[in-house]
Design goal:
The chain has helices at 2-19, 33-54, 66-86, 88-100, 110-129. It has 137 residues and is mainly alpha-helical. Helix content is 69%, strand content 0%. α1 runs antiparallel to α2 (33-54), α3 packs antiparallel against α4 and α4 runs antiparallel to α5. It has two domains: 1-55; 66-129. The protein has five helices and no strands. The N and C termini lie far apart (54 Å). Residues 3-135 form the DUF1468 domain. Pfam families: TctB.
Length: 137
């Protein structure tokens, strides 16, 4: 209930702040359009959360798994460290394989096909289509 109330309070602040700006129309949005629409959605969500909080004792959530968080956070680091030295294909394959390690690995064709498909797509989109100056290998 406290979280829902906090969301409604933040929504009210943005609604008051956005009301001082020109709203505009759907085709000609003014500077107040996005803050007001966002505040309305946030306030509605806050009300729903507050009502859910009033219903009773909330269940104790499980602790988040640390392995997926660390692995997914490591993927952009690996990509940035490898892209200049190894090229697009090995970098995308290594990053895709590392991302697969976020969950327990089940052996199958997708363990090979997904990294290869992503690397082929990356070469086509970034090197061939957009002309980014990154070597394929």
């Amino acid at each position: 209930m406290l979280a829902g109330g906090a969301m409604v309070l933040v929504a009210a602040v943005f609604l008051i702040w956005g009301a001082r700006l020109t709203f505009g129309t759907l085709t000609q949005m003014g500077p107040g359009f996005l803050p007001i629409c966002t505040a309305i959605c946030l306030g509605a969500l806050g009300i729903v959360i507050a009502i859910e909080g009033l219903k009773g004792e909330p269940p104790i959530p499980d602790l988040p798994k640390l392995r997926p968080l660390l692995v997914i956070a490591a993927c952009p680091v690996l990509f940035s460290l490898m892209i200049d030295h190894a090229g697009m294909v090995p970098t995308v394959v290594a990053t895709a394989l590392l991302a697969r390690a976020a969950e327990p690995i089940r052996w199958g064709w997708d363990l090979v096909l997904v990294p290869l498909g992503l690397s082929l797509m990356a070469v086509f989109v970034f090197i061939d289509f957009l002309g980014v100056a990154i070597p394929a290998f």
